[in-house]
Structures are given as structure tokens and as C-alpha cells.
Amino acid sequence: xxxxxxxxxxxxxxxxxxxxxxxxxxxxxxxxxxxxxxxxxxxxxxxxxxxxxxxxxxxxxxxxxxxxxxxxxxxxxxxxxxxxxxxxxxxxxxxxxxxxxxxxxxxxxxxxxxxxxxxxxxxxxxxxxxxxxxxxxxxxxxxxxxxxxxxxxxxxxxxxxxxxxxxxxxxxxxxxxxxxxxxxxxxxxxxxxxxxxxxxxxxxxxxxxxxxxxxxxxxxxxxxxxxxxxxxxxxxxxxxxxxxxxxxxxxxxxxxxx
Amino acid sequence: xxxxxxxxxxxxxxxxxxxxxxxxxxxxxxxxxxxxxxxxxxxxxxxxxxxxxxxxxxxxxxxxxxxxxxxxxxxxxxxxxxxxxxxxxxxxxxxxxxxxxxxxxxxxxxxxxxxxxxxxxxxxxxxxxxxxxxxxxxxxxxxxxxxxxxxxxxxxxxxxxxxxxxxxxxxxxxxxxxxxxxxxxxxxxxxxxxxxxxxxxxxxxxxxxxxxxxxxxxxxxxxxxxxxxxxxxxxxxxxxxxxxxxxxxxxxxxxxxxxxxxxxxxxxxxxxxxxxxxxxxxxxxxxxxxxxxxxxxxxxxxxxxxxxxxxxxxxxxxxxxxxxxxxxxxxxxxxxxxxxxxxxxxxxxxxxx
Lengths: 258, 353
Hints:
The structure holds two protein chains of two kinds.
Chain A: H1 2-17, H2 31-46, H3 53-59, H4 61-69, H5 74-82, H6 85-92, H7 95-98, E1 102-106, E2 109-112, H8 113-138, H9 141-150, H10 155-185, H11 194-221, H12 238-257
Chain B: H1 2-18, H2 29-53, H3 57-72, E1 77-78, E2 85-86, H4 91-98, H5 100-117, H6 125-150, H7 156-185, H8 192-224, H9 226-230, H10 238-263, H11 267-276, H12 287-299, H13 305-314, H14 318-350
Antiparallel strand pairs in B: 1-2
């Protein structure tokens, strides 16, 4: 679990260095429109009926399209998708036992309604998370926050997002070295108890607070007066609107006809 | 031995971290949308309160505190008597450090980043997740349980009780909310009582651990640097605060009840389905009307799929159509892949970046 988390943090770190996502025509579209289209897609995915396995498969086409068109690393993304599965499997696993109305036979085995709804749940979970992952691959976190601000999200929240993202790596490094130091000094289970761990967390907290004071001084020294300053960006154009409308019409068509 | 340890880590990961996270796949659009609106409202309200405070120095503190929650979750501890390990959730610690509004915004930002990078849940489920994991600890457990019991934190026993009670209450309310959201959405077939009997004991146990760790952390900070916690203004305007909380809660309850009312098919439709084996009585033979109503039925954002299925299960001719539907779906999938491939080569050829 910790390794997985460390991997994700590492990935975030790489992402933060990168200026902008993969080069593709998607990035000529205004980021706000991208965020809205992705959100509409999430709403459509959620609206797929409980037993409509075909519609769920058809909606998987969108993240697949983005991955192929933008040359996103498909294997890496599949690995991250698998992290999602445990809880979804747990909840979906109940359906085949509760909803036992028989539907059809496949390869000589009886298929019941619960099995179909369980596979739809799993498919939808994978599709919606794959969509989020493609969005993150396309847009850098800073421009995501900037677009959110321009969409009317309170500045308190967007500034907060940028700060958490920025300092997440630093403090994770500190936490990891605290953890490593404990590993080196402890044998078996010693030092892994609640009280030691809590003291470690407490001292991490104290250090974080004093770090935040230094951060604030640094921000002041660079002219911070309660607002982060973003560079000017152009407004929405006709091509942005065309992109949004096309995407939504395609989602709607797939939802109706498949 | 190693394998066993792996499994137990996995177990706590499932129960502690993931169980509390809603997923898009378990939500209906109505429930997801209602909680998005509720959460958005609370974010806007808290942001307004914070900017009224006009205290820029705490902006940096909030940011670093959010990063601290990430980091603290990397320090795991073994849970006594179980052989598994867990980590801090941190809602109550944040609230004690920052006060309810700032703690809420901070937790919401952490959940937002988790949603994007840790593949937690999905975009629509984010509203539910922020509500379950940030609203309850920051606005209910902290001011009405922790503060009431622990007071200024002078007495160790009261502080310990406050932390534990607050930790348990926050997790139980969150878990209860997850169950309500799942059952209202009707995507999972788990019945309310089974699900709640599964969720509440687990989260009661996790809540005890969370409370104890919170107590240790808070008392450690009180010993080493008491000024950190006393700088927190706590509640701003008690009476207005209570009113606002109740107003928000009422709003959400109203929304949820409305969803519930609309998502459970009414008795008449049910009986029609049962009697005739069809969803609606054949009124119009009109083809266009039939097409429109089938479109409308497919687009219905409220889950009335249950009884559509019951009609489907009874009918025998439907399996053929659903097979062709699946074929069509795979064709869409292949088409998307092919057009993506063509576009990718064209974008490279034109050097479009």
C-alpha cells in the first residue's frame, strides 16, 4: 500500500515538472471546455442504466480514444486502474447473489441479472476513473487550478489546491524518511505502535507548521498580497464551442442508440 | 509471513480507506448531482467565511496542512490486537489546527487531489466523498463533539474522551452517509440493513483508532508547541454557525428525500408492470411517439431500470437484441480507437502541439 502511494506521489512529482500534457490538438481547446466535457462525460457514464452492459462498453470508447489519439501510456494507466478494483469488487460481488433472476445462458453456464449488473458496476468504475486519469495526463495541475478559478471556483480553494500539490512532495519525502528511520531502528513490531507513530505524526505536524511560516514569509517576499497572479489568457472561441457541442452530441448519440 | 502481512495491509486498505470512498459506479446521477450541489455550496460558504477573515498568513498554513495530511498517511502503525496496519485520516487533527471552515476547505482539497491522482472514485463521486469525509469531521464532529467535551484541552481525560468520541462520530456519520448514498442510488443490490451492519462496526473500530491517534497527536503538540493549537479561533459566531449548519443539513436532507421520492417507482407503475408484463399500457400506436418515448426512457436520469429489467427478464426475445447491442458497442469502441489512431498520426504529421 505504501509503495503504491509512493509511486503515485512520484508520478505527481514528474507531472508537476512537466509544463503541459502530451502534445495534441486537445490542448488547443480551452482548458475550461475540456474540464466541462470531461464532467459531462462522467455524468453520462453514471447515467448508464443498471443492466446496460452494451452502453457501458460503448462509453469505454471515449477514454480509449483519448489514450490512442494523444499517445498516452496505456500500460501505466491500466496498472493504475487496477488499484481501483478492490472496493468495487467487494460491493459488486454481492449483486450476483442477491439478484438471481436468470437471464440467459452463456457457454452452458447460467447468467443471472446480478452478474450483469455487477459487471456494469465494474465497467463503469473503470471507465469513469480512466476518464479522470486521461484528463490529468492532458492538463497540468497548475493550469487545471487556473481554469477552475476562471470558471468561478472560489480563489481560496484553488490557491489551496496549488499549495497542497506543491508541498505534498516535500512533506511526503519527510514522512518517508521518518518512516525509514523508524524501520532502521525497530526490530519486528517494536516502534510500530500507536504511541510512537503518533509522536512521529505530531513532530511532522510541528515541523509542517514552522515550514508554513517560512513559506508564508517567502510568499510575502515575492509580493504576495492575498492573490496569486496568473498570466492573461484568451477568452472562449468558436472552435471551443464547436468542440464542446460535438463531444456532447456524440455522448448523447451513444447513450441513446447503443 | 510476508504474504500474511500483505493480506492484512490489504484488508485495512479496503476497510479504512476505500470503503469510505464513494465511486461513480455506485451512484445514480440524481444522488451524485444533489451531493455535488450540497458540497459546492459548503465550499463556497466556507471560502466566503475565510476571505472575510482576511488573514493571509493562514493561507500558507492551510496549504502546508493539506500536504501534511498526505504525508501523515504515509506513516503507518500497527493496530493493536488485529495484526493489520492503518494510518491517520486526519480530519479532526486538521479541525483542531485550523478551525472548521479552513479544515473543510483543506480536506476538500486533499480529496480533490486524491480523486485526480489516486484514482479514487471519479468526478461525480467527488461531491459525495467531500461531503462524507470532510463535512462531518469539520462541521459536526469537531464543533459539537470534540469542542464540547474537550473544551480548551486542559484536562487530559476530557481531551481523550473528546478525541475518541469525535473520531468515532465522524467516521460513523461518514459511513452511514456512504450507505445512504449507495442505497438511494440503487445500483448495488446490497440491502440497507446488510450494508449498514457491515459498515458501521468496521468504522466504529477504525474510529476508535483514529480517535486515539488524534488524542496522541494533539497532546504531543500541546506539550511541545501549545501555541499552534491555541491560535485557532474555533467557532466564529456560535449562533449563526449552528443556524448555517442546520440550514445546510436541511437543504441536503430535502434534496436526498426528493431523490428518494423520485427514484423509487410509484406503486401504479409497478402494478401495471406486474399485470401486463409491459411498462406502460399501449396507448399510442404512433411510431414517432414511440421513438420519442423510447429515447426519453433511455435518457431518464432517474433509475427506473429495475422494472425495465423485470420486463426484459420475462420476455424471451430480448436476448437477441441485447447481443446486437453489445456488438454495436464494440463497434463504437473499435471506431473510436481507429479514429484516435488516424488523428494521432495526423497530429504528428502536422506537428500540431
